[in-house]
Design a protein that fits this description.
- With 204 residues, the chain is of the alpha+beta class.
- It has one domain.
- The chain contains 7 helices and 8 strands, in the order ααααβαββαβαββββ.
- The chain has an 8-stranded antiparallel beta sheet, sandwiched between helices.
- A hairpin with a 3-residue loop joins β7 and β8.
- The longest helix has 20 residues.
- The chain starts with a helix and ends in a 7-residue tail after the last strand.
């Protein structure tokens, strides 16, 4: 397996299993969704992909658009990291649809440092969007492919009840991982972007 993909998936597998077990995934009823006309990849691109590793613009959107903060035990379900530097989340309403959004930032773990020694004591910054069961997996995975603009490094890798597709890229200054996790049932999942940056890079 590609080392870049392996490093990205080390933390994500435990994270997603934890989210599913804890019930963080939205049900269709809870989302009060109407139809499939809100493209979740457009929402993900606007909130996460176009912003990370900088987080202040995401916080500004949360403030201006009055997103409802996720707090306490619900918020802790979004990461397996014991003491992240940043952990914030919101329930985001777009039209009739409700998405859960979280940002997580921490120091690179030992595996990441070993795989990418040039990044030194850098940061890992993630932004994720949880999708409810009204989102058809085949549609949002295809739209993620269009967003990535390149073939995936790995495709439909089974992880429990999920199929994971990962796109990877970057340079000596940063590494970018774009991840789509689709439920085996064909609906719902998770979209994630994680960027690894060198120490001293701009992440706020």
């Amino acid at each position: 397996m590609n080392l870049i993909v392996r490093a990205s998936r080390m933390g994500m597998r435990k994270l997603v299993i934890g989210l599913l077990a804890a019930g963080v995934m939205l049900s269709a009823t809870a989302a009060r969704a109407a139809g499939e006309d809100t493209d979740p990849v457009f929402v993900f691109n606007r909130i996460c992909y176009a912003q990370v590793p900088k987080l202040d613009q995401i916080r500004d959107m949360a403030r201006r658009l009055a997103w409802r903060p996720i707090e306490g035990a619900d918020l802790k379900k979004f990461t397996t990291i014991k003491n992240p530097d940043v952990l914030e989340g919101w329930d985001v309403q777009v039209g009739e649809r409700l998405f859960r959004v979280a940002i997580v930032q921490s120091e690179l773990n030992a595996a990441m440092k070993k795989t990418f020694p040039k990044l030194g004591n850098g940061k890992a910054t993630s932004c994720m969007v949880i999708l409810d069961e009204q989102n058809v997996s085949a549609t949002f995975v295809a739209n993620m492919q269009s967003l990535a603009g390149k073939p995936p490094a790995s495709k439909d890798v089974p992880e429990g009840n999920l199929l994971t597709t990962t796109w990877a890229g970057g340079n000596d200054e940063l590494k970018v991982f774009l991840v789509s996790k689709a439920n085996n049932g064909g609906r719902g999942g998770l979209l994630n972007v994680t960027i690894l940056t060198k120490a001293g890079g701009t992440t706020q």
